[in-house]
Amino acid sequence: MAGLVNKIIRKLFSKRKLKSEPLGQEEEILLHTMMEYSRIISQYIPYFNTLSSPEKQRFIKRTWFFRRSKIFHYIGLEEKEEIAALVSAAAVQLTFGLRRYKLSYFKHIYIMPDAYQFEKPGDLYIGHVSPKGIYLSWKHFLQGYENAADNVNVAIHEMAHALEYNNFINHADADPKFRVDFQLFPVVYGPALAHMITTKRSYLRSYAYTNIREFWAVSVETFFENPAALKTTMPKLYYVICEILKQDPLALHRNTTIV
Ligand SMILES: [Zn+2]
Known about the structure:
Elements: H1 2-13, H2 25-44, H3 46-49, H4 53-68, E1 71-74, H5 81-94, E2 108-112, E3 116-118, E4 120-125, E5 127-130, E6 133-137, H6 138-146, H7 154-168, H8 176-182, H9 185-199, H10 212-225, H11 227-233, H12 235-245
Parallel strand pairs: 1-2, 2-6
Antiparallel strand pairs: 3-4, 5-6
Helix pairs in contact: 1-2, 1-4, 2-5, 4-5, 5-7, 7-10, 10-11, 11-12
């Protein structure tokens, strides 16, 4: 399957005419799916449009494999492949520098139309991660990508939690390199927390200081939403996230050797 996917993606990004050679039925369907993925992701996810052509090919390929590895559940909204593609693309954005990207601890992704109740009545959630799966409000997913200025992106936030879970709970799929690199994170948390308590100010929103897990998820949201501002205001945090995620959103060309 990987060979066929590679062939179709190369064809999609080829400068030559798409119909230069006839395709089989399976190839035609796959080409159509990949074209739709490419169209929808470039429309909604600005990160994708900053990538080079080989990186875009890798991004689409990973999105397709990630999506195939999950079961999507639509609770109170119509099932749409574009939702599955975009949610998968958010995970691929986060893990783009890493070798293991499928977050295989999580098989199920639940999509709700809007904020939802969970556990305690009255408390509304826009996303959460539990051993049962990854949960997202579709309305807030879209808002996360529409507005970069607020440093809020619920999909990136929940995928950051999922990535941590995947490496520290799911030992079968844990990436030893990631686990070692992640040890850098508590080193930046202590000084950032001390600075926030002393000055009552932080570039990160106050929810980041709930605990170290939320500090990780909020920092990663900000890392992708406003990388330049994070680098200027909290450079140590910025470089530690670059090291853990093996990517720098401000660098023009990312590492293209990892597939
Ligand atoms: Zn969180």
